[in-house]
Structures are given as structure tokens and as C-alpha cells.
Amino acid sequence: MTRILLLGGTGDALQIARRLGPDHVYSLAGLGKVPTDLACTVRVGGFGGADGLARYLDDERIGLLVDATHPYAAQISANAFAASRAAHVPCWALRRPAWQPQTGDDWRMVDNWAELTSALAPFSRPLFTLGREPLAHLDEIPAHQHWIVRCLEAHPGNAQARILDARGPFTVEGERSLFSASRIDVVISKNSGGNATEAKLEVARERSLPVIMLRRPDLPSVEREFTRAADLLDALQTLIS
């Protein structure tokens, strides 16, 4: 049997983790809810960079590293790539396909926070769906704006920001209600791909609202890459059975 270390934190990763037995390890950064119903070992916290991860692979006799982290977790993916090379352990990755703009979409692509805030300047009621990053900027909100920030954890807002702690999947009906009640005039999103959070893009399209889209980071190429969790699970069957 090949012992597997699964780097997760996404719904796809959890789907894979539910198929792993007690000899395998599911690793989480610890920023979200930690599952308590898995048969595999659950490890929470960092490794100490690529060097620490390489030591862990060696110490725990890991035979396969699987990177199923978020498409924007670029540093973790880079560390996984470097550690796998240093420890001579193969690395597979789940690379969720990005969303593609459709007819009627008004996507405004940005690369960083500075470009994002510049693109946001003409609007007054943005919906942020970037996770925790906007929380560090709540004291920088321009006077003419009121932010709606959706992330996984509860967090205090202020006079110009409402924080929604919510976890997908989100429905089109639910997003329509949120957009109407909050008078959203622009959406800020990562191009995460998948179905769980795509409804916001459909509602933005219906309402002819712009979407400020953060470009995906470049991720390293590994031995095997998969675009669907089901395909990765199929490939893992001979290793986890």
C-alpha cells in the first residue's frame, strides 16, 4: 500500500478524503471547519514551508503527495512541488478548470489588490467573494462605498461593511435575493471554477453587473494533473484499496 498525504481545504478534497482509510493523511491549514467524521488521519496546521513538508514526507513515509488545495493557494502548491522533488515523492494535483466568460458577461480582470481597488472605484455596493482578504482592508473603505463581504468565518463589520459568514453551494435564487436586498452593483470574485459558487456569476449576468475577476496564479506542473475529483479518485483506487 502507498501512504497518501492529501493537501486539502476544498469541497473536492473533502470528497477524496472521505474515501481514504486510517493509513492516509488529510492535511488542512486550519482556517475553516475541521471534519470530525473521516476514517483517515486529519492533520491541521502548516509544515514549515517546503523544507518542513519534505521532512514530513520522509518521516511519515509518504509515498504519494496529492495537492487538492484551492486554485489560488499558490504558495502551498509551490511548496508541495518543491517538497515532492526534495523527498523524491511523486505529486499529483487536482486543478479545477477556471470559469469562462459567457455572452453578456462584463469581466474586468485584475492581478492584485491595488488593481482591484482601482477597478472598484466607480461603484458603491460591492459584493466581495474573495474569502478573508477584504477583512484586512475594512478601515480603507472609501466614503461612497458600503461593502458586503462573504467569507467562511464570522467577523465583525463596521458602519461601511457587512460581513456574511456563509459556505457554498449557493443557489441562483439565494443570490438573487442577496443582490436585491443588498443593492449589489458589482461583484468581486476569484476565478475558482466549479459549481458551488458559480450562481453569483449567473445573477451578475442577468442584471448586467460587472464582475471584477482576480486572475488565477500560475501553478507548477506535476506528475499527473486531474480536472475532476472523480477522475483522481479512480486513479487512486489501486493505492487506497
UniProtKB/TrEMBL annotation:
Pfam families: CbiJ (PF02571). Keywords: Cobalamin biosynthesis, Oxidoreductase. It comes from the Bacteria. InterPro entries: Precorrin-6x_reduct. The keyword Oxidoreductase applies. GO terms for molecular function: precorrin-6A reductase activity. Pathway: Cofactor biosynthesis; adenosylcobalamin biosynthesis. One of its GO terms (biological process) is cobalamin biosynthetic process. This is Precorrin-6A reductase.
